[in-house]
Amino acid sequence: MEFLRQLVLYGILIAVFWGGIVLMKSLARIDVPVGYSDVRDLPEYSSYRADQTVRFANYRVGDGVCYRLGSDEDLAINFGWVAGLPGDSFAISGGRILINGKPAVHGEPVEIGDCGPVPIPRDHLFIVTDQHQRDSLSYGTLPASALIGRVGELP
Amino acid sequence: MSSFIEAFGHRRLGFAFHVIAAICGISAAYLTWTATERWLGIYALDKAQVAALAGDFRAMHDAAKDASDYLPDLAAPGLLAIDWSDPHATPAIERLINRLPNQQRPFVETMQALHHAMHQLPNSPSLSGSDEQLLKSIHKTRQGLPTAPLEFVSSDPPSAPIWGFVVQQQFIAAWTEANRNAIRKTAGNLRLAMPSHPEQRYVTFINNALTPDIKNNVLVEQAKPLSSDVGALAFTRILRQLVTLVPERSALFLPLIPPDIRTPAENAALLGSDKTLEQLVTSALKSGTLLRTVVALIERSLTEQRYDLAKQLAASLKEPERATWTRAVAQAAGDLTTLQQLTLDAGYIPTAYGLQHQGNHLRFHLISPAGIAPSAAVLVRIGTEVIADERIQRLGSLVNITLGEQRGPVVITCDKFTIYSGTIP
Fold first, then answer.
1. Higher pLDDT, residue A68 or B6
2. CA distances (Å), A129 to each of A79, A140, B224, in order?
3. Paired sense of beta strands A124-128 and A142-143, if any
4. How many contiguous H segments (helices) and E segments (strands) does chain A have?
């Protein structure tokens, strides 16, 4: 009986430890870099909860996401919205971004000639921002390894 | 516990516990070791992936090699560690495939097929679905055969590396064929697929140049950095092809070709050989033409010694080009007044040197200290009488004045400058 009790105790400890790791990952907050303007009205000095436990297959169109584009300080943290999933097609027509032929919800018009449609490759997402300085129009569709987590509260 | 002691005895039970403790210790040490290795591997893989995103491929390669040593059963570090541009990487790819578990192999096999296609190696592995369609497209483009339009189903998207290679290859084929519609389509695809590629600006320019909706001023803004950076020569080649592909915009592209490497045919086309210089200048002044066109017209006006036209054109420019070209025109025309106004420099004041009075003639060299002979008329006044122009001969900087019968105080001026004041005996 004593042995079982100790076994349960250790089990609970391990579960709490494991739960803590998962919970900490899902509650991690990401600070908005000072001067960041690619998402309009994103306040400086604020931080957002980035759920890093979301699996790649569970990202959906319209999700606010936090992602990285490099190791430099100004590219390490970026915010945007998922506009297209693997297998969707995207194009530019009349300065508007079209996803599967329909205008993307976010992002301002661009001065790019009509092009596409092209497919979003496997394990990649099409991310869009308001100013398009650090989104998929400037850096290409982003691989799963670029994603930091899902942020549901972007303005 | 006491029942255990009764059943097995202290010594045996102690021994058993020692054995269990040893096994637990070894297991813990093993787990710690593998966990540390895994952590180091994940850390190195993360570094490699970030370096790949930033385009730092040397750092990516180094970090991926470390990660691959720590995580030999994962495809990702192995894929990043291999130099896919090396046609002799096949053994390394095969070694990677052999050491991976089955579920990790398809990623590497896809890249192996692309490696074969890129380097045209025999015995290319076969793929399925979208990637197979792309590989067939690569082979057909290589052979110069027409390719069927690529169609993908949303449930089977292509792999990013193969898709990236195909759009590059399709663009190169279309550019080589000089097929306007194909270039526009493939440049657009390339622009969307690889927007962070170092040469993307050229592709965007080509795509925009072939899109009628894009306004000329947008193209001019995009062309500015391209014509001045290290790829200026490549950009000139692009412009030359665009002149033939989009003749309706040739008036926009030709001035962007640097004047020193423009061919005579391009110069003639640029300046409209069927029009007179006056007509071209009038039209340029009316329509607010591009800077480079105005500069080309100034150069042509100077060559034809039409300083009046060159002066008008220079005046139509904005600063700082206006000051530069006004000075250049004034120097070519010998307009010392303008030069002196521009710079307030005594070097531009016309001066008489070596004045000689011999018989009925007064001779001197009229030149500024900066070495420019003024083009303005020389006015000679003796007493109250002004000497007629035909009695003033000029040969370069030499001025020869036939005095005639007049004698008395003489004042010689050139434009607003008095260059001599004295008395002729």
1. A68
2. 7, 13, 26
3. antiparallel
4. 3, 11
Using a cut of 0.90, tell me whether the model's pTM lies above it.
no
Q: Please count the structural domains in chain A.
A: 1
Which of A127-141, B78-92, B272-286, B408-422 is predicted least confidently?
B272-286
Residue B422: CB atoms within 10 A of its CB come to 12
Q: A145 to chain B: which residues are within 8 Å by CB?
A: 49, 52-53, 76
What does the pLDDT look like over B82-99, one tens digit per residue?
888 888 888 888 888 888
Q: Is the pLDDT of residue B369 over 80?
A: no
ipTM: 0.84
Cβ-nearest to B154 among A87, A91, A136: A87
Higher pLDDT, B124 or A8: A8
For residue A51, give the DSSP letter. Answer: B
The rounded mean pLDDT for chain B is: 82
Identify any residues that bridge with B357 across adjacent strands, giving them in sequence order. Answer: B362
Amino acid identity for residue B402 in this structure: T
Write the CA distances from A131 to A127, B189, B213, integer angstroms. Answer: 12, 21, 21
The pLDDT tens digits for B274-310 are: 567 777 777 777 666 666 677 777 887 887 778 888 8
Three-class DSSP category at A65: strand
Q: Write down the pLDDT at residue B275.
A: 66
Of B144, B98, B99, B94, the closest CA to residue B121 belongs to: B94
What pLDDT is stored for residue B281 in this prediction? 74
> Domain limits at A38?
30-151
Could you tell me if residue A118 is inside a domain?
A: yes
Are B237 and B257 contacting, i.e. CB atoms less than 8 angstroms apart? no
Q: Where are the domains of chain B?
A: 275-333, 349-422
B50/A113 CB distance under 8 A: no
Q: What is the CATH number of the domain that holds A139?
A: 2.10.109.10
Detail the DSSP E strand segments found in chain A: 29-31, 47-49, 64-67, 78-84, 89-93, 96-99, 102-103, 115-119, 124-128, 142-143, 147-150
Q: Which two tokens stand for residue B319?
A: 């600063």
Say whether residue A41 is in contact with chain B using an 8 A CB cutoff: no
Domain B349-422 of CATH type 3.40.1000: no
Interacting residues of B180 by C-beta distance below 8 A, sequence separation 6+: B210, B245, B246
Structure tokens at A72: 């430099």
The answer to the question of residue A146 being in a domain is yes
**A2 within domain boundaries:** no
Interchain pair B214, A89: CB under 8 A: no
| CA of A70 vs chain B CAs: smallest distance (Å) | 4
- For residue A21, being part of any structural domain is answered with no
Cα A139 from Cα A69, distance rounded (Å): 8
| Among the partner residues A92, A94, A119, nearest to B163 by beta-carbon distance | A119
SS3 category, A102:
strand
Q: Which residues of A touch B158 (CB under 8 A)?
A: 119, 121-122
Q: Which residues, in sequence order, are CB contacts of B115 under 8 Å at separation 6+?
A: B84, B89, B90, B93, B121
> Cβ–Cβ contacts within 10 Å for residue B210, how many?
21
Contact B196 A138 (CB under 8 A): yes
